[in-house]
Amino acid sequence: MPTQTIMVQTYNIRLRGKRLYNERRYQKEALPYLLAQRGFKWAQAMAADILLHGRGDAPRDLEVGMGWLGAVARPQTTAAIQTCFRQAMAKIAAHLREHIEDIVRRYRERWSTRGWRASCRRVVPDSPAGMGVTSQRLNKRMRCTFMDEIPVCRSVDFDLGRKPSIRPLEWTCDPITG
Question: Please, are residues 33 and 13 in contact by the beta-carbon 8 Å criterion?
Answer without folding.
Answer: yes
